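Hi there,

I know you've been waiting on this one. I reran it after we fixed the sequence typo, so this is the corrected version. Both the input and the resulting structure follow.
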Amino acid sequence: MHAMAVEFPRVHGHPNRLPFEGVLTVVDVASDRAPSGARGHRVMLTRAAVEVALPSLLGMAVDYKSGWDGHDARQKCGIITSAELDGRHLKVAGSLFCRDYPEIEQRLGIEGSMGMSYELADAHVADMRATVWTLTRATFTGAAILLREKAAYKGTSFRLKRTLAEMRLTAGRR
């Protein structure tokens, strides 16, 4: 297991930090569908590439697109503070800016329907002629929350991570 994290001070009841966790992608497995930017090719992110790129995830933004069907890098709604390669799953956690984007918290109350998608730069494809592009190097530049059915990898997930006290506090704010 490989893991990295940035620890922020805990601020009990912070009105704009809502913890989340998710599976960003599955490594060494071809995507179920072509991600945007892959010119119609399914992709496979190698374990070696993820291990090297893991530090690039920390501090990167999480975004969402109205309609929950893609990416919108200008709709930054949270931050990734930890990343962990656990078996084939690249897991991330962090905080959403729930006060700034109340619509996100309302939508994400529906468990099980949301997934994630990574955003990359400087990706190296082993063979551009291959049906499935194998990514051997990349830098993570962020992530998106979207409907799992719209994600390139069906094995992704996203969920809010709340304690009972946080749920009571949130309910009291409405």
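Quick highlight: The first helix runs from residue 47 to 57.

Best,
R. S.
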